[in-house]
Amino acid sequence: MKKIALLFLAIMAMTACGSKTNSTQQVADSTVVKELPDTLNNAEAVTRQVDAVYSYWNELREHFDESQPTVDERFGTQEWRRVRQDVDAIDRECECGGFFDFGEDGPLDAWTYDCYEGTVSANDIQVKMEPDGTAEVRFLIKDASTPKGRPVRWLMRVENGEWRVANIFFENDDDYDLLMNMRAYADDGKYNKSFNINKYLPDMKQQLAEKQDADPDGIFFDAYGLVDIDLDGTPEVYVQNKERFSNAVFSVAGGKVSLLAASFAATEIYFYEHGVGAQGGCGTGCMMSDCTVIKDSRPVVSFRIIDEYDMEGNLVESNTTKEGQKITNEEYERLFAQLGKQINLSAMMHDIDE
Questions:
Q1: Is the pTM of this model over 0.85?
Q2: Which of 113, 170, 174, 175 is CA-nearest to residue 146?
Q3: How many other C-beta atoms can be found within 10 angstroms of the C-beta atom of residue 47?
Q4: Per residue of the chain (354 residues), what is the pLDDT tens digit?
Q5: CB of 346 closer than 8 Å to CB of 8
Q6: What is the DSSP annotation of 261-282?
Q7: Which helix (H) or strand (E) holds 177?
Q8: φ and ψ at 317, to 5 degrees?
Q9: Cα angle for residues 330, 259, 254 (degrees, 5° grid)
Q10: Cβ of 5: how many Cβ atoms within 10 Å?
Q11: 211-231 as b/e, with b when 16 or more CB fall inside 10 Å?
Q12: 231 — alpha (psi -120 to 50), left (phi > 0) or beta?
C-alpha cells in the first residue's frame, strides 16, 4: 500500500487462540463527554456532522483561506489533532515522501481517500450509537470520478459540545487504522534518531539462538522497525530476516534485551494491546500460539498452547504451559485475556548494516 518502506503486520484470528507522537498512555481529554445531551444523543446529529465535514472540505478547496482551521483542526478530537501534528513534523524532516504518500496517483487524504474530483460527499451513512458515548459511522466517499464510492469507517465522540472524529479506517485497505499507524509512523521518526540497533544485536541473536537451539553465529537480521506496542514511551524492536522468513520482537527497556516473540516460515507475529505473540503451524495437524504479556515494555508472563488435530480436523489434544510449566486450559484463557484485543500495527523498516 505505501510507497515508503512499511512492513504490514496483519492481524488474523487463529483457532488456537479462540512509521512523532507522545507515546504515553493517552489520558481522556477533559472535554470528552460520555453522557450525551439529548440534542446529540441520536444518529441524526451524527449524520449532520458528517455532512458538515464534507461541506467544510469542499468550501476550503473552493475558497482557501489560511486563517481558517484545517479539517483536522475543525472536526478532529484533541488526540487526533495531536497525532496529525506529530506526523506533519516528521514529514517535514523525512525524505520518504510522507505518511500519506501511497496510491499510484499521489498522496491520499485522511478525509477523502483519493476522491478529489468535483464535489466530495458522504453517502449511505450508517450510524451505530455506542453505550460509551461514541458512535461508529460507516459511509461511502464519492466524487465525480468515483460514483461507486470508497468505503470508510469513523469513530466519533463528543468534545467541546459537538461530535468530532477520533479515528478513521480505510475499509478498502484491510480496515487500515489511521490513528494507530500514524502514531507508529511518528514514533519511529522520533525514536530512530537516537536508536542504535547494533548495540542490541548480540543479545538478540543469543536469545533467539537459545529459543531455536541454534548457533547465534548463524542468525542474521537484515531490517528492523520500532513499534511502541503498549504506548508507554519505550518502543519494542521488530527485527526480520527477509530471506529466511524469520521475525522476532524484543523489549529493550532500560537497555535490557528480552525476547517477546519469534516467528518462522509457518508462523506469524501478532500484536495486542498489552503484548505480542507468534501463532501458526508447528507440524502436521499442529497449531501453536506462543504469547507474552508486557507492561512498561517488559515481559510479565509468557504462555503457550499447542493443539493437535487428527486427519479429519478434530481436536485430539491441547497442551497449555506457562513459563514452561503445564497449566489448565482455563488458566491459559485467563492469561490470554490479559493481552487485550488484537491491534494492527505497521512498522517503518530500516536496513541493518552490521
A1: no
A2: 113
A3: 18
A4: 332 233 333 333 233 333 222 333 333 444 566 778 889 999 999 999 999 999 999 999 888 888 899 999 999 999 999 999 999 888 887 766 688 876 555 567 899 988 888 999 999 999 999 988 999 999 999 999 999 999 999 999 999 899 999 999 999 888 889 998 898 888 888 888 889 999 999 999 999 988 877 888 888 899 999 988 888 888 899 998 877 667 899 999 988 999 999 987 678 899 999 999 999 888 888 999 999 999 999 999 999 999 999 888 888 888 999 998 999 999 999 999 999 988 877 778 889 986
A5: yes
A6: EEE-TTEEEEEETTEEEEEEE-
A7: strand 176-177
A8: -150, 145
A9: 115
A10: 14
A11: eeeeebeebebebbbbbbbbb
A12: left
Beta bridge partners of 177: 169
- Number of Cβ atoms within 10 Å of the Cβ of 62: 8
Q: Which residues pair with 288 in a beta bridge?
A: 280, 306
- Pull the grid cell for residue 163: 461530535
Tell whether the torsion through CA atoms of 209, 212, 217 and 218 is positive or negative: negative
SS3 109: strand
Three cell numbers, residue 76: 478532529
What angle separates helix 178-191 from helix 78-93, to the nearest 10 degrees? 40
- In single-letter form, the type of residue at position 102 comes to F
Distance between CA atoms of 136 and 132, rounded to whole angstroms? 11
Q: What is the 3-state secondary structure (H, E, C) of 289-349?
A: EEEEEEECCEEEEEEEEEEEECCCCCEEEEEEEECCEECCHHHHHHHHHCCCCEECCEEEC
Number of residues written out for the chain: 354
How far does the chain reach from its first CA to its final CA, in angstroms? 29
Cα separation, 101 vs 239, in Å, equals 24
